[in-house]
Amino acid sequence: MLTADGDDVAHQMPSSHLPTTATSLPRPLPPLVLTTTHDNGHVMTMEIGG
Q1: Where are the beta strands (DSSP E) in the chain?
Q2: I need a surface site. Which of 4, 18, 23, 24 has the fewest CB within 10 A?
């Protein structure tokens, strides 16, 4: 999950968290739905309730 753009450094988030969510995606995501693309090409969709 290393990015040459340094987005992870700018956000100061641990590697265990989602590095760039809405920033790396072409369109904004719903507040309760987060989609992240791993370096292996798999896409994980997480629904956060609360």
Answers
A1: 33-37, 43-47
A2: 4
Give pTM, 2 decimals: 0.16
Sequence-distant (≥ 6) Cβ neighbours of residue 8 within 8 angstroms: 1, 2, 15, 19, 20
The span from the CA of 14 to the CA of 23, in Å, is 17
Q: What is the pLDDT of residues 32-42, one digit of tens each?
A: 555 666 566 66
Those residues whose C-beta lies under 8 Å from the C-beta of residue 13, and which sit 6 or more positions away, are: 19
CA–CA gap between residue 44 and residue 39 (Å, rounded):
11
